[in-house]
Amino acid sequence: xxxxxxxxxxxxxxxxxxxxxxxxxxxxxCAPASxxxxxxxxxGPTDKCGPIEPTDxxxxxxxxxxKAAFSSNDWQKTYTVAPYKITLTRSNDVIQVIAxxxxxxxxxxxxxxxxxxxxxxxxxxxxxxxxxxxxLSKFCEQKRLALYEYDLVDKGQPYVAxxxxxxxxxxxxxxxxxxxxxxxxxxxxxxxxxxxPDLPVCK
Length: 203
What we know:
By secondary structure, the protein is α+β, with helices and mostly antiparallel strands. It has helices spanning 18-27, 56-64, 112-118, 121-127, 185-195; strands at residues 46-47, 50-51, 76-82, 85-92, 97-105, 133-142, 145-154, 157-167, 172-181. The protein is 22% helix and 34% strand. Strand 6 (133-142) and strand 7 form a beta hairpin. The protein starts with 17 loop residues before the first helix and ends in an 8-residue tail after the last helix.
């Protein structure tokens, strides 16, 4: 499956943690029956398509994705495991940078409709309300990976953000966001290259 991410998200540096609640609510809807996979036996909670809890393999994948880029002791890591998703935040107070990611589980699979319903302006505009201004400056996609670049202003300070959405499997989507001060755009380029070498920046 190779679907287009034809959406227009808005995310804010200071209210990123709200993403978890919105995404958890959206994930619980699953995909239509036409894309449903055969349910498999499970000891934990399930929905009509199978287990809703992330597997150990899901957790390990999330924790190790891009790990080498955050080896400095200045980075602090927190993560949560919940039905339909894993949330991971890495923050660096020294350089005022945050890396926020989620591994989203669609037990029934997803299609173009689900992507459109999940990633839409209405949901992201709520999260983005604390910004003084926000401008989606670029969009590009390559196969199963989409990238959105933003110019942001918060409390008078300019920031640059990059937000990736990757169709990892037919039931898993990885979203990853980096927000850097505009003055550190060159460092943002370096982290982007380490995390997503196939699409670090929109040309």
